C-alpha cells in the first residue's frame, strides 16, 4: 500500500509540474520548460524585438467586435490605405463622448506660394538669357497672371535690366518687382456700382477657382454696406451649384433666382435681372459654370450671357 501511495503522489506532482510549464510557456516565461529558442519572440507579441531576450507580456483583454488594435491604429496612415490626408490638414472642431467633428484647417493664400515658389528657383539661375525670360513669363501665367499682363511685365523687366546692365538673376528680381508694381499704377480698381439699376457683375472662369464662394463673400460685403443684392444661379451645369449659391444668399440676406439643372443659363440671368429691375435692386451677381477659354461652344454660350444683360436692360458693370 505504501508503494502505491508514493507512485500516485509522484504522478500528481509530475502532472502539476507539466501544467505549470505549459502555462509559463504561453505567458512568455523564460524557464527551461519553454521549448521556444531564446531570442525568438512569440508570434502574438506584436512589435517585440527580434533579437535579445524575449519580453514577457500579459495577455491583452478581449476587444469589442470591430475595434482596431491600438498598435494598428497608431501605425496606420491617416485616411486608411490611401494616405491622402495629412494630419496637419485637419483640425478638431468638436469632441464629445459620442462623436468627433473634424474640418479642414484654414487654407493658405494661393497666389503668393505659386509666385514665390516659381521665383525662388528661377532667380537662382546663373544667366539672364532667353530661357530665363521665357520661364519668367511661364511662371507668371501659371500663377494666374493674365497673358497680356505677364508679357508686359517681362518686357518692362527686361528693359530695366538692360538699362541697368545687370547680369545676375538675383539682382534682376528688383526690376521684376518694380515692373509688377508699375502695372498697378494709374489703374482704377474700384468696382463699378454706377449706372442704371440693376448693375450686373458676372463671375466667370475655369472650374474650381472659387466663383460661387467669391459671390458669397462679395454679396455679404455689399449687403452690409446697405446695397440690395440679387443672385443669379446661371451655373446650371454643376449639380450642387444652385444649392451652394442659395446657402450663400441665405447667409448674406440676399435674394436669389435659380433655374432647373440643365436649363439655359442665359434665361436664368434674364429672369434675375428682370426681377431685380422690377423690385428696384441695386446689383445682380451672376454665377456661371466653369469653362476653359479654348472650348468654342462654352465661350459662345458666355457671349450669349453677355448679350442677355443688355437684352434684360441691365448695366454690365464688372466681369
Concise account of the structure shown:
45% of the residues lie in helices and 11% in strands. The chain has 319 residues and is α/β, with parallel strands linked by helices.
How would you portray this structure in words?
This protein has 319 residues and is α/β, with parallel strands linked by helices. Helix content is 45%, strand content 11%. The chain is built from ten helices and seven strands. The chain has a five-stranded parallel beta sheet with strand order 5-4-6-3-7, sandwiched between helices. Helix 3 (111-122) packs antiparallel against helix 4, helix 4 packs antiparallel against helix 5 and helix 5 crosses helix 6 (169-182). The termini are far apart.
Uncertain segments are 28-59, 63-106
What's the main sheet like? 5 strands, parallel
Strands across the major sheet, in which order? 5-4-6-3-7
Roughly how many Å apart are the termini? 113 Å
User: Tally the helices: what do you get?
Assistant: 10
Mean pLDDT: 74
Task: Give the beta-strand count.
Answer: 7
Structural class: alpha/beta
What shape does the CA trace take? flat
Radius of gyration: 36 Å
The helix-strand sequence is: HHEEHHHHEHEHEHEHE
Portion in helices: 40-55%
Beta-strand level of the residues, as a percent range? 5-15%
Amino acid at each position: 500500500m505504501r508503494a502505491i501511495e508514493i507512485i500516485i503522489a509522484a504522478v500528481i506532482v509530475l502532472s502539476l509540474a507539466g501544467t505549470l510549464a505549459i502555462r509559463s510557456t504561453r505567458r512568455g516565461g523564460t524557464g527551461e520548460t519553454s521549448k521556444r529558442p531564446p531570442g525568438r519572440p512569440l508570434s502574438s507579441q506584436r512589435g517585440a524585438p527580434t533579437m535579445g531576450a524575449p519580453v514577457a507580456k500579459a495577455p491583452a483583454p478581449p476587444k469589442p467586435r470591430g475595434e482596431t488594435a491600438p498598435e494598428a491604429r497608431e501605425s496606420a496612415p491617416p485616411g486608411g490605405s490611401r494616405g491622402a490626408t495629412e494630419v496637419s490638414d485637419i483640425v478638431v472642431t468638436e469632441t464629445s463622448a459620442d462623436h468627433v467633428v473634424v474640418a479642414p484647417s484654414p487654407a493658405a493664400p494661393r497666389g503668393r506660394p505659386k509666385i514665390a515658389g516659381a521665383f525662388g528657383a528661377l532667380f537662382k539661375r546663373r544667366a539672364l538669357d532667353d530661357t530665363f525670360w521665357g520661364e519668367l513669363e511661364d511662371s507668371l501665367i501659371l500663377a494666374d497672371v493674365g497673358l497680356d499682363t505677364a508679357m508686359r511685365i517681362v518686357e518692362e523687366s527686361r528693359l530695366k535690366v538692360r538699362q541697368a546692365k545687370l547680369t545676375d538673376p538675383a539682382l534682376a528680381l528688383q526690376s521684376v518687382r518694380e515692373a509688377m508694381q508699375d502695372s498697378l499704377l494709374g489703374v482704377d480698381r474700384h468696382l463699378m456700382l454706377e449706372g442704371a439699376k440693376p448693375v450686373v457683375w458676372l463671375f466667370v472662369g475655369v472650374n474650381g477657382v472659387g466663383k460661387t464662394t467669391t459671390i458669397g463673400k462679395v454679396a455679404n460685403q455689399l449687403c452690409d454696406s446697405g446695397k440690395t443684392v440679387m443672385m443669379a444661379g446661371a451655373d446650371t451645369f454643376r449639380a450642387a451649384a444652385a444649392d451652394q449659391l442659395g446657402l450663400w444668399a441665405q447667409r448674406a440676406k440676399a435674394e436669389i433666382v435659380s433655374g432647373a439643372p440643365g436649363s439655359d443659363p442665359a434665361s436664368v440671368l434674364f429672369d434675375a435681372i428682370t426681377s431685380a429691375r422690377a423690385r428696384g435692386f441695386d446689383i445682380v451677381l451672376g454665377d456661371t459654370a466653369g469653362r476653359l477659354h479654348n472650348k468654342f461652344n462654352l465661350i459662345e454660350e458666355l457671349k450669349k450671357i453677355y448679350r442677355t444683360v443688355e437684352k434684360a436692360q441691365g448695366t454690365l458693370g464688372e466681369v
